[in-house]
Amino acid sequence: MFMLLSLAQQSNELHERLEDLMKSWESSLEKMRPRASYDRVRELREKCATTFLRRYSADFVPCDCPVCDTPGEYSFSKLGYEHRKCPRCLTLFCSPRTSEEHLERYYADYEAPKAWTNLLLQTDLERKIVQYFPRADIILDVLESRESGCEIPVDKQAFFSHAHHCPEEVTK
Length: 172
Prior knowledge:
It is a single chain. The protein is mainly alpha-helical. Among the domains are: 56-109; 123-172, no CATH class. It has helices spanning 2-32, 35-56, 100-109, 111-122, 124-145, 154-165, 168-171; strands at residues 73-78, 81-85, 92-94. Strands 1-2-3 form a three-stranded antiparallel β-sheet, with no helix packed on it. The longest helix is centred in the first third of the chain and has 31 residues, at 2-32. The two termini are 40 Å apart.
């Protein structure tokens, strides 16, 4: 009976730790991708993508894999755009697709790309704190644990230095 009680207690403790981790993850995700802003951008993407497709789909051209030039196999359709998967290199790509000229027009004239860029710029620091700093800390720990010296390339030193010296409360 003692063993069953101990297992139940361990299970409860594990459950509480998982709940804490989920709350932390949800908080981090909200900082990187604020729900209201992200939902607005997603709605704009859907609206702009369907409008663009209606306007220019007659000019779309079939294409093979942009990586290895192998014909792709149909994978799924989203908002009217067919996605294909390359059986050779597993790249997922759209085909048929628009011309480069029309794509430039989409990014210049439509609201969705601008809204997405603004959201990324607004959350830039939060994404770095949540995504990159913990990874930099892991890399630094590995480098510091090696007996043979390992130098960080000059162009990466500022990032690693910043991540390593970032106040603890910022990285949580």
